[in-house]
From TrEMBL:
Pfam families: HTH_18. The keyword Transcription applies. GO terms for molecular function: DNA-binding transcription factor activity; sequence-specific DNA binding. This is Helix-turn-helix transcriptional regulator. InterPro entries: Homeodomain-like_sf (IPR009057), HTH-like (IPR037923), HTH_AraC (IPR018060), HTH_AraC-typ_CS (IPR018062), Tscrpt_reg_AraC-type_HTH (IPR020449). PROSITE patterns: HTH_ARAC_FAMILY_1, HTH_ARAC_FAMILY_2. It comes from Paenibacillus arenilitoris. The keyword GTP-binding does not apply. Transmembrane segments: none annotated. It comes from the Bacteria. PANTHER family: ARAC-FAMILY TRANSCRIPTIONAL REGULATOR, HTH-TYPE TRANSCRIPTIONAL ACTIVATOR RHAS. Keywords: DNA-binding, Transcription, Transcription regulation.
Length: 287
């Protein structure tokens, strides 16, 4: 049973309502089965919630996501004076789209509609709470919610997206910091980026990492879904896009600066990734 909730990059969650509560006595979380997701953030005390038989005790400055369609309830164990914020929202997932998981490889500096069709897993329970910045964001959302103005619900939904994205990024950074393979990927990307103006050299990368290249290649592909060479090529094209936007260099000069064998090879690589030759792409730019 999947208890996780996901964001997508191509749409934001739609907030139904939002509020803040404080218990005046011993409190029991409602027994219910909802058609929407729930976000809880406790600012004082602690709240006890059970979701499909798994118990959570959400402490101060901790959060919990409850997934739609899963039965959740509580016991009379939430103490007097417990205060929390809640958001009810509908999932942004479009079942007609086959979403992929986001890799750690930097994005190209160019628009592709398919690029936004990926999901981000939200941290289920409190370890990645952002403490006071979370409460500040929730206060701002409630203030917007109380103002009867045009587009307020859209504004709140965008704010909710930003809050949830921050929670995801915080959890992701902690997870990567404790993951040896992710640490290797970060070092590989740093190396590739610093050598994006030259042809890829597996021997030099292996020496830099003090690791066998077969291990480097397999680890990188497993963690990112791309080969090392693909990532290096994308970073080179990123450099090319930056030069196109910020300089008056022509295609041949950009090819030379990035260390390609010749402009024809550069054009072939560029077109393979972006779907059009560099000369055509440059015609779209304001220069």
């Amino acid at each position: 049973m999947d208890r996780n909730i996901f964001l997508t990059a191509d749409r934001f969650p739609l907030v139904r309502d939002i509020g803040r509560n404080r218990t005046e006595g011993l409190y029991t979380h409602p027994d219910r089965l909802l058609e929407y997701d729930v976000f809880l953030f406790v600012v004082e005390g602690s709240m006890q919630v059970i979701e499909e038989g798994i118990e959570y005790v959400v402490g101060e400055n901790e959060h919990l996501f409850l997934k739609k369609g899963l039965h959740h309830w509580g016991k009379p164990e939430t103490l007097l004076g417990t205060a929390w914020y809640w958001i009810h929202f509908t999932s942004p997932i479009d079942e007609r789209i086959e979403y992929k998981h986001l890799s750690v490889v930097p994005e190209l500096e160019n628009y592709f509609s398919s690029h936004y069709q990926y999901v981000l897993q939200l941290p289920k329970f409190g370890a990645a709470a952002l403490n006071h910045s979370t409460e500040d964001a929730l206060k701002s959302m409630i203030e917007s919610y109380r103002k009867k103005r045009t587009h307020r619900m859209t504004e709140i939904s965008v704010q909710a997206y930003q809050l949830f994205l921050n929670l995801h990024q915080k959890a992701e950074s902690r997870e990567h910091a404790n993951n040896k393979a992710d640490a290797h990927v970060s070092r590989i990307l740093e190396y590739l980026n610093s050598h994006a103006e030259e042809d890829f050299n597996s021997k030099q990368l292996s020496e830099h990492m003090s690791l066998n290249y077969s291990y480097i290649s397999a680890t990188f592909a497993k963690q990112t879904g791309q080969t090392v060479i693909e990532a290096h090529t994308r970073l080179r094209i990123n450099k090319a896009l930056h030069l196109m936007r910020t300089t008056s260099l022509n295609v041949s000069e950009i090819s030379d600066q990035l260390g390609f064998q010749n402009p024809f090879y550069f054009t072939r690589v560029f077109k393979k990734i972006l779907g059009e030759p560099p000369s055509s792409y440059m015609n779209h730019l304001y220069r």
